[in-house]
Amino acid sequence: MAGRPRFSLATVVVDCPDAQALAEFYRRLLGWEVKFSEPDWVLLRCPDGGTGLSFQSEPEYRAPVWPERPEEQQKMLHLDIRVDDLEEAEAYAVSVGARRAEFQPQDDVRVFFDPAGHPFCLFLH
């Protein structure tokens, strides 16, 4: 084989108990568009293009704990979301269904949980 084959990251898939509900949360939070939807799978895309965000229903889904604790479900990844105004973004995230984490490790980053319990961070440019 000559060289490396071409790879292009198309979407990040997030497991959850209800793909439709979690996709609706992120659609509202990010302002992205639903590009494809089935009962147990939804694809969102930014109107400006780029990598998508998909949601897949998993009946055995267990929400991770954060901060991590031994012997409990660990997070596999989290989303870092850049915002212009941290306080305004925090209020909006809560208004669409996010829950602020009790433990906040940094002053310039806010950690939240989405409705399925996945942690995500809001941070300034």
Automatic annotation (TrEMBL):
InterPro entries: Glyas_Bleomycin-R_OHBP_Dase (IPR029068), Glyoxalase_6 (IPR041581), VOC_core (IPR037523). CDD domains: VOC (cd06587). Residues 8-125 form the VOC domain. Transmembrane segments: none annotated. This is VOC family protein. It comes from Streptomyces inhibens.
